[in-house]
Every structure is written in structure tokens, then in C-alpha cells.
Amino acid sequence: MRLSWKNKLIVALDVSDPRKALDIVDRLGDQAAVFKVGFELFVTAGPGIVEEIQKRGKRVFLDLKFHDIPNTVTRAAIAASRLGVYMFNVHTSGGLGMMKQCRDAVVELCIRENIQRPKIIGVTALTSLDSDILKNELDIHYSLKTHVKHLASLAFAAGLDGVVASPQEIGMIKRECGNDFLVVTPGIRPSWVPPDDQKRTATPRQALRDGADYIVMGRGILKQEEPEKALELISLEMLTA
Ligand code: C5P
Question: In this structure, are residues 167 and 210 in contact, taking their beta carbons and an 8 Å threshold?
Fold first, then answer.
């Protein structure tokens, strides 16, 4: 399925105040269709914030990166599915069994309860990790790229819908797991926005040209003086990708 640019852009609601989050959703109006709710907002506002966003006709990517024993992750995944989220994620380093059990339980639940099945996305290596941390702290002696490739293949084997990865890894993952395997990329910055703490960035146009299925943007929109204007410029860039 080919998604329109609007459905490919995920706006990260990285704020703690639910009123502020809903204000952003309302301000962006028809310009944005998918919003990411992460730890900060979810811990402060609870599942009600997801329902409020969905009531406005928007999709929610629940970015809680579940990482626990298979039974616990599966139960959390079932709760997320019943909440009606469009997408949620689990850590691939939880292992093949954990991902598979979670995926199978969600598929079964959604058929049984007639729920639209959420997309299940695997987190590979966090973009804050580098080869030094991998080697010296985690005792993993592969390159970061090889490690990401391995974890993406594991997510693919478990039947997940895709992975979160940096813009630089899109091509490698698509070659390894096929074009239909979704890649969700954060670290996106239009050329007129500074990289902040993101190390491996790409512009929206570049990420889409490289094959990203979804791009996640927070500060590139929310920290701009006029978020609506910023989004308008970004949409033009996405349209011409
Ligand atoms: O503000 P910025 O566009 O950098 O925000 C990126 C969003 O994507 C943040 O919510 C961040 O937590 C999330 N993210 C990331 N890198 C990952 C996974 C998620 O930046 N590997």
C-alpha cells in the first residue's frame, strides 16, 4: 500500500502536559495525521491522552518500547491493541520468542475482537548507542551496522511489521528483509533545523528517497516559532521526494 505523505509523517509529542499535547494536535489540524506518544507524555497523562488524540481522528504510534519477559510484553501489547493504537513497538533484544508470542497474541486478539491490528515495530539499536558502547559496555563485538542488521532480521523472522532505524540503515534493512518490511526513521531534520543531539540525521526528502516508510519528527516541527509553517515547508519537501 502506498501511503500519502501525511500518513508517512509521525509528529513526536515530546511534551509532558496533556493540554499542550492536544493543543499541538489541534494547531496542526489537517496537516498531520499520525502522532507519537512516548514515555514522558504517557507516564504523565496515562492512556486517556491516546483516546483524546484518537477522538480527533488521528492515529497514534505508542512509543513505549516494551522490553520484558514474553508474557509481560504480550499482555502490554494486548492492552495497547485494545486501546486502538495504530502502531506500537517492542525491543528486538527481548528475543525471537518474545516478539513472536506478542505478534501471534495480537493477531489472534484482533481477529477475535474485531480490532484493527496495530503495526508492531521492533526497536533495533538505539540511536544513542555507538560502536564504543556496543563493544566496551555491552560486550558486543560486531559493528553497529551488523548488529542492527541482525536484530532487524530477527524482527522479520518473528513476523513483526518493521523496525525503527536510523536513516543510514534504511537501504541495508530493505535489502535484508524486503521492501514491504517497514522502516520507521527518527533523526529527521530539514536542512534549516540544527541536528540537536541526533547523531545520524537525514532530511525528510533524503529519508523518503532512501525508502523510509515513516519519518518521525519532533523538534524540527515543535520547536519552531511557527510549527504550522514549518510543517507546510516539510510537506512540500516530502511531496517532491
Ligand atoms: O526531536 P526529534 O525529531 O529528534 O525527536 C525524535 C523522536 O524520536 C523522539 O521522540 C525520540 O525519543 C524518538 N526516537 C529517536 N531515536 C530512536 C528511537 C526513537 O530519536 N532510535
Answer: yes
Q: Are 32 and 218 in contact (CB under 8 A)?
A: no
Among 183, 192, 216, 219, name the best residue to mutate to test ligand 1's pocket (greatest count of ligand atoms within 8 A of Cβ).
216
Asked if residue 170 lies in contact with residue 207, where contact means CB atoms within 8 angstroms, the answer is yes
- Give 219 Cα–ligand 1 centroid separation in angstroms: 9
Q: If you measure from the C-alpha of residue 2 to the centroid of ligand 1, how many angstroms do you get, rounded to a whole number?
A: 24
In the residue annotation, 65 being an active-site residue is answered as yes
Q: What is the pTM of this model?
A: 0.95
Angle 144-157/170-177 helices, nearest 10 degrees? 40
**129-143 confidence digits (pLDDT tens):** 888 999 999 999 999
User: Which residue in 220, 223, 224 sits closest to 9, CA to CA?
Assistant: 220
Q: At what angle do helices 96-112 and 70-83 cross, to 10 degrees?
A: 30
Query: How large is the greatest C-alpha to C-alpha distance in the chain, in angstroms?
Result: 48
Q: Which atom of ligand 1 is nearest to the CA of 189?
A: 3
The structural domains of the chain, ordered by start, are 5-239 (3.20.20.70)
Q: What atom of ligand 1 comes closest to residue 217's alpha carbon?
A: 3
The per-residue pLDDT for 2 is: 61
